[in-house]
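Researcher: We plan to redesign the surface later, but first we want a full-length starting point. Tokens attached.
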């Protein structure tokens, strides 16, 4: 299970909640997943909350977070011509 919520706010911030059981996932240091997400959020100017609350396989945890991020960043076709904002602008 991976969850991601983004706010395209111009105010970069991140909450990252995922515990990996190994130091590496394939050839990649598992600590770099959080650093990647932090760099992404701050360079994109978004607030990002991303988590993987449980799981046994580190590869599947990382995959779930990236899939959740992709879905959170996708345009919902039900609202494609609307600005979904409490302020009315992005």
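Model: Full-length starting sequence:
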């Amino acid at each position: 299970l991976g969850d991601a919520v983004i706010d395209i706010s111009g105010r970069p911030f991140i909450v990252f909640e995922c515990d990996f059981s190994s130091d590496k996932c394939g050839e990649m240091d598992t600590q770099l997943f959080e650093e990647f997400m932090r760099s992404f959020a701050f360079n994109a100017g978004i607030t990002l909350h991303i988590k993987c609350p449980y799981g046994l396989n580190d590869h599947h945890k990382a995959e779930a977070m990236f899939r959740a991020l992709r879905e959170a960043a996708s345009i919902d076709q039900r609202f494609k011509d609307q600005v979904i904002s409490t302020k009315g602008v992005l």
